[in-house]
TrEMBL record:
This is Phosphopentomutase. It is an enzyme of class 5 (isomerase). Isomerase that catalyzes the conversion of deoxy-ribose 1-phosphate (dRib-1-P) and ribose 1-phosphate (Rib-1-P) to deoxy-ribose 5-phosphate (dRib-5-P) and ribose 5-phosphate (Rib-5-P), respectively. It catalyses: alpha-D-ribose 1-phosphate = D-ribose 5-phosphate; 2-deoxy-alpha-D-ribose 1-phosphate = 2-deoxy-D-ribose 5-phosphate. Mn(2+) 1 binds at D14, D339, H340. The gene is deoB. Signal peptide: none annotated. GO terms for cellular component: cytosol.
Length: 403
């Protein structure tokens, strides 16, 4: 009989892919296919990666990494997982991890949003929208290019990316957070399922500063996502009475569906780890799932093509792993994974279609070893089997291998 774990702690290192997927040639960064992308691999190769704790668990056993060695006796079971769904965005990756198969990709707007949509937002908000940034744009470059103008005029900065998102950047000194959130909530209402402009996420992007080169995003970002298209393993756990605790933007990604306690948004990834540790210490959390997203890998370093910053972020998490492992009960299971790639050495600024790592650890493990290559949803299938609830639409449990 497969071993049962009392609690599962699932960390998503947002965008930390580990090598091109077999269908990478069908996904693009602008005009360049994602062939050859390898987020963790290229970071290791280009700027070095010093992660002794990840190495002990078995990160280097998943694939060949220049500065992360294989270990003969890893502390954890490891493998890489392939995406089935038709997409490489945050929602598609997370929803598939929890058992959904997203066959139809979300629409994207490579030429910007339609005039009719912008006019509706203008009418609701009472603010004009700049037309020039209405296209796929770097979230930091758009501030340098239009932030000073927003300070003078109060106009909204609306832009998109290769993902199915509408982002509204607003200087907190000009557009108060309550107003920004209200505008985003309206934009969410008119881009929901059934709308001619259906979007995966509306993102509030508040920032501060007075001059180009000095603008800085604040931690007050909010994501307004579509609810998942079907029941996920989160729903099944919640329906069965298990605690389902979220940290970071997990609650936003699933629109709160199946989550019965939220530890709040992260100020940064290390704050996210702090929130995770607080959740692990809750007396009432004696069973169930703790689901954590660490977004800085993606938002601060992947999209900005900053391999040094990405490396430092991975190393920071590596330095916290002993803390996390010490806080685990003897029958806890830790799984660390990703939701897509975002190779900071690659062309463009978009996500990359990659395998994701699956790194697992438990104090109950005896002789861990690498597992066969699987699929994203195998994670939720494993969690579902462990807790005796229904699995999602797709996925094969690897619980019986964790002995």
């Amino acid at each position: 009989m497969a071993k049962k774990f009392g609690r599962v702690h699932l960390i998503v290192m947002d965008s930390a892919g580990i090598g091109e997927a077999p269908d990478a040639d069908k996904f693009f960064n602008h005009d360049t296919p994602d062939t050859g992308a390898n987020t963790i691999g290229h970071i290791s190769e280009a700027v070095g990666l010093d992660v002794p704790n990840f190495q002990k668990i078995g990160l280097g056993n998943i694939t060949s990494l220049k500065t992360v060695a294989k270990t003969a006796h890893p502390l954890g079971y490891t493998t890489k997982l392939q995406e089935v769904s038709n997409g490489k965005d945050t929602m598609t990756g997370h929803w598939e991890i929890m058992g959904l198969d997203i066959k139809n990709p979300f629409p994207v707007y490579p030429d910007g949003f339609p005039e009719a949509l912008l006019e509706k937002i203008e009418a609701f908000s009472g603010r004009k929208i700049m037309r020039e940034p209405n296209k796929p744009y770097s979230g930091t470059q758009v501030l340098d290019d239009f932030g000073e103008r927003q300070l003078k005029t109060g106009e909204l900065i609306i832009y998109t990316s290769a993902d199915p998102v509408l982002q509204i950047a607003a200087n907190e000194a000009v557009i108060p957070l309550t107003e920004l959130y209200k505008i985003c909530e309206y934009a969410r209402e008119i881009t929901n399922i059934g709308s001619e402009w259906m979007l995966g996420r509306i993102i509030a992007r508040p920032y501060v500063g007075e001059h180009a080169g000095q603008f800085e995003r604040t931690p007050n970002r909010r994501d307004y996502a579509l609810a998942p298209f079907g029941a996920t393993v989160l729903n099944h756990l919640d329906d069965a009475g298990f605690p389902v605790i979220s940290v970071g933007k997990i609650h936003d990604i699933y629109e709160g569906q199946g989550i019965n306690r939220d530890m709040g948004h992260n100020l940064n990834d290390m704050d996210g780890v702090d929130r995770m540790l607080k959740a692990m210490a809750l007396p009432e959390f004696d069973k169930g799932l703790l689901f954590v997203n660490l977004v800085d890998f993606d938002a601060k370093y992947g999209h900005r093509r900053n391999p040094e910053g990405y490396r430092d972020a991975i190393q920071d998490l590596d330095g916290r792993l002993p803390e996390i492992m010490a806080a685990m009960k003897d029958d806890d299971l830790l799984i660390i994974t990703a939701d897509h790639g975002n190779d900071p050495t690659f062309v463009g600024t978009d996500h990359t279609r990659e395998y994701i790592p699956m790194i697992s650890f438990s104090k109950a493990f005896t002789t861990p070893k690498p597992l066969p290559v699987g699929h994203f949803a195998d994670i939720s299938a494993t969690i579902a089997e462990n807790f005796g609830v229904s699995a999602g639409e797709i996925g094969q449990s690897f619980l019986r291998d964790l002995i």
